[in-house]
Each structure stands twice: as structure tokens, then as C-alpha cells.
């Protein structure tokens, strides 16, 4: 993300910094007076601190009442508008054996004792859960041991909207941006039913494959069944959040049976530790950023960037005239991954699909009148050639600010691959001279696609 200095008096008028056309190697930002200043040092340090402090995952536990009257009792104060409990959940599926009666292809959660046999039938009817590796769907029990069912084969009475889960996710992970043109909202789309069974069900560290550039996260709902182990750990920038739902939700302890849920940005690495016993039963949803329905209530939860800790630091830096001269560029490496391989989609969706700290930085820059643009920036190509295998075998393409594994995106934009090859000297064409760039002929386009200040 790049913020140009705002238009101001003649001295502060912005001017774009360019990299020399002759530069054949990876451009690095020229040191300027301003980038060496103590204020800039403070900014770098604060950004590093603040961006790791921003939330990347959230979750909750919702108790299940056995009946409508119990549900009413569980909410003693009628003024309590928040949805704090839910009713039992029915799940029905298409059995592989068509002669199976409908009542035998149905489970109610919390599990009714007479439906134990149905649970076993469901597991039999499910399919091995594959995952994407090197652009292909593979089944490898040493990496992922689970069974899954596609939504075309099951339906359930569970609805994450009714329980306020989607609203909670929107508030925690996708608050609306003041400087976007319209409010944004969250759409949750049912993706799979998964069962991780003991003794060795698991899903080792991975990043979910986004189904579209608008997908910003994943939602996992854990239904009440007895299991041991199987904690979900979500990681981002050296921090980890663990959601351990074993015992918590089957109602066998002091607590009522419950629904547990977690949502996280899709580029965050996560892992399901081994289920040692029982069945860990989850519904997964893809989360998309969509246009909101308006603000008729006048109570839309905008972010107020002026209240963010970094706001003052950046404002002071901009007002520090000594060093800016004819203006300049401030570069900020995004802390999450975006669909950087497709320039038109990147510009079309931004800033609406910005996540966590990136969204805060955008708001700060925009509220200070900076013109914000997004650029994929290459870095450290040696890592691509030197270490083609990373973790689960996928090649790593490091991009400053947009560090990503190839496998994260299903379709790699061909133009991007071509430029990448050119840049890396893999063919005869001259290497592109700039990645951290602004091209004169693109200026008009950018105004219409990105000029959202
Ligand atoms: O079941 C879970 O906790 C998460 C599942 C998961 O990571 C996935 O399906 O990609
Ligand atoms: Fe996942």
C-alpha cells in the first residue's frame, strides 16, 4: 500500500518518486532525509508493533436450549436483545443407499441417544477430505485425516445469521471503512461438513484456498459431540489463537451443550491438532466481503481513524516539512495477503476487502488526505529459486507486503507470470525496470478505479 503526500501548499505539492529506467535490479527505496528521520524510525517501530496487535481471529460459545421455553428462561431479561442461546440443530443428508428411510438419515444435536446409529451411517456416507497441494486436490492422511460432505448432499437448521454470528464476525474482522464509498458487509456461504475422528483425525498447518478475490475469511462451527484433542490454532505474524472445543460443548460437564465457533482471515495459517477420541464435527463457511445494505439506522460502526494510536505519529511525520521537499511516497507492507496477481481485481475490490491492520492503515492514510494505491512489489527472489519447497511442498512467491504461496490462489494471472519471468531474466525480453511504480499512462485509470479518497 502506498500513500502519497496530500496536496497542500506549493512546498508540499506531491510529486511521484520514480525509479530509474536503467535500474536492472530489484529497486530499493532511496534513502531520503525523511526516511532517516527519528519520526520515521518511530513510525516504522509503531507500525511493526500495532500491526501484530490487531485481531485476526474471533470466536464464541453459544449454549443450546432443549426447547423454546428453556430458551426463553435462558434469556431472563426481556430487554436482552442479543442472541445468547439457540435451539437444537437438525441435520439431514442424502444417504448413499437410497433405500434408507429419511428418519435414519437425520441427526439432532445435541445427539439424541437413539440416533447414535445414524451418526455412524453419516460417517460411512461421507467422502475422504482432500486438500489443495501444488495446484491439485490430493488425499494424504498424514496431512489431513477427515471426511467431508458437500452442501449439495446435506442441509441443516443451523443458521449463523440468526445467531448473530455473522454480525459478530463483521464487527471483529470487517468493520466498515469511512473512506470507502459504501459500507461493506459479510456474506457467509456454507462450504462443507467435516468430521475429524479419533484416534488420529487432523489437518496440519495450512492456509485456506480463497474461492474468489472477495473471500476474506473462513468460519468454523463446531457442533456438540464428545471428542478429545482437536484444538484449532490460528496464526498470524508470530501470534497464535487457540480454540479448544473438546469437552467444552457436548454437555457432559457442568456446562450446557453448546455451539462453538471461530472465524479468521483466510490467509492466516491454521491447524487442527489430533483428535484423540470421539468425533469433531464442523460446518465450514466461506466469508465474503459484500456491499452493505445502507445506513438507515444512522448507527453504522465506522472506524474512527483519528482514535487509532498510529494516527498521530503519521500526522506528525507528514507535518514535519523538513525532508519532504517535493513530496514523496510512504510504503507500507500489507500484513495480509490479497489477490495481487490480478491487477484489475485488486483495484476493483480494494479497499473493501482490506483486513485487520491493513484496513486501519488505509483509514489513517486516507483520513490524512493521502492518496492510497496498492502495488504488488517483488522482493528477495532468491527465496523462490533457493527454496522452492516450503512446508507442505508449495513454492513460495515472496512479494513485499503481499507475501503469498502460489497455491493460495487457484488461478495465477498469466500476465503476472510473464512479467515475473522477464524480471527474473528467464527470457529474452528486457526486465521491467520498476515494481514500485507509477506509470504516467496509468494515471487516469487509477483515478477511476482507485481514487476513492
Ligand atoms: O474444522 C476446523 O476447525 C477447520 C477446518 C479447516 O481448516 C478447513 O476445512 O480448511
Ligand atoms: Fe482450513
UniProtKB/TrEMBL annotation:
Keywords: Iron, Metal-binding, Oxidoreductase. GO terms for molecular function: metal ion binding; oxidoreductase activity. Residues 422-438 have a biased composition (Basic and acidic residues). It comes from Staphylotrichum longicolle. InterPro entries: Oxoglu/Fe-dep_dioxygenase_dom. Residues 187-289 form the Fe2OG dioxygenase domain. The lineage of its organism: Eukaryota, Fungi, Dikarya, Ascomycota, Pezizomycotina. Residues 1-24, 422-453 are annotated as: Disordered. This is Fe2OG dioxygenase domain-containing protein. Residues 439-453 have a biased composition (Acidic residues). Belongs to the iron/ascorbate-dependent oxidoreductase family.
